[in-house]
């Protein structure tokens, strides 16, 4: 059974209020989602299920230690997804892999989520990136969105590492200016 955003959010709220049974149920539901997420991501690049299990445990530990940072007024699954994604990126970096090695069409994503805000944010980000030169777009996507190192991005873009750093810096600065200008209207 796939847990819904509402169920997971309710379990988290109850857990934060000290309900131990709700917390155990939450961790059980999350471990299923995380296991499917990591197995799907790692299997496509030929990595082991043992690595997926390690990531599940690392992520559950991170959720436990950071539970106080969860804002109960916000959707829960995007908060968990962010932690899971960062744990995956950290793991891939430690093993000299990148998010670009993991196919985007992965079906093992969390099923329970509120995509409305995420879709709007992705659309806004795409619009901001579209206003930049192609080299800046690629540099930002590789380094900031895909989690590649500057060296990896430089190699893929056919640019020097300093050029990647400058492109990322100037691109983000230009996007910030565009946001600021949009708020003035």
TrEMBL record:
<feature type="domain" description="RNA polymerase sigma-70 region 2">
    <location>
        <begin position="35"/>
        <end position="96"/>
    </location>
</feature>
<keyword id="KW-0731">Sigma factor</keyword>
<dbReference type="InterPro" id="IPR013324">
    <property type="entry name" value="RNA_pol_sigma_r3/r4-like"/>
</dbReference>
<dbReference type="InterPro" id="IPR036388">
    <property type="entry name" value="WH-like_DNA-bd_sf"/>
</dbReference>
<dbReference type="InterPro" id="IPR013249">
    <property type="entry name" value="RNA_pol_sigma70_r4_t2"/>
</dbReference>
<comment type="similarity">
    <text>Belongs to the sigma-70 factor family. ECF subfamily.</text>
</comment>
<protein>
    <submittedName>
        <fullName>RNA polymerase sigma-70 factor (ECF subfamily)</fullName>
    </submittedName>
</protein>
<dbReference type="Pfam" id="PF04542">
    <property type="entry name" value="Sigma70_r2"/>
</dbReference>
<feature type="domain" description="RNA polymerase sigma factor 70 region 4 type 2">
    <location>
        <begin position="124"/>
        <end position="175"/>
    </location>
</feature>
<dbReference type="InterPro" id="IPR039425">
    <property type="entry name" value="RNA_pol_sigma-70-like"/>
</dbReference>
<dbReference type="InterPro" id="IPR007627">
    <property type="entry name" value="RNA_pol_sigma70_r2"/>
</dbReference>
<dbReference type="InterPro" id="IPR013325">
    <property type="entry name" value="RNA_pol_sigma_r2"/>
</dbReference>
<dbReference type="InterPro" id="IPR014284">
    <property type="entry name" value="RNA_pol_sigma-70_dom"/>
</dbReference>
<keyword id="KW-0805">Transcription regulation</keyword>
<keyword id="KW-0238">DNA-binding</keyword>
<dbReference type="Pfam" id="PF08281">
    <property type="entry name" value="Sigma70_r4_2"/>
</dbReference>
<keyword id="KW-0804">Transcription</keyword>
């Amino acid at each position: 059974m796939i847990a819904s955003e509402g169920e997971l959010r309710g379990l988290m709220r109850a857990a934060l209020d000290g309900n131990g049974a709700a917390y155990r149920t939450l961790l059980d539901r999350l471990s299923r989602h995380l296991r499917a997420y990591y197995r799907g991501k790692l299997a496509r690049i030929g990595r082991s299920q043992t690595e997926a299990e390690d990531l599940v445990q690392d992520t559950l530990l991170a959720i436990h230690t950071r539970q106080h940072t969860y804002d109960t007024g916000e959707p829960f699954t995007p908060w968990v997804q962010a932690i899971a994604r960062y744990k995956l990126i950290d793991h891939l970096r430690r093993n000299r892999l990148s998010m670009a090695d993991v196919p985007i069409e992965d079906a093992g994503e969390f099923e329970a989520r509120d995509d409305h805000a995420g879709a709007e944010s992705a659309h806004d980000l795409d619009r901001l990136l579209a206003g930049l030169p192609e080299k800046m777009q690629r540099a930002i996507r590789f380094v900031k969105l895909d989690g590649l190192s500057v060296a990896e991005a430089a190699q893929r873009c056919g640019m020097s590492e300093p050029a990647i750093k400058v492109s990322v810096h100037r691109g983000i600065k230009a996007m910030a200016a565009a946001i600021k200008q949009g708020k003035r209207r």
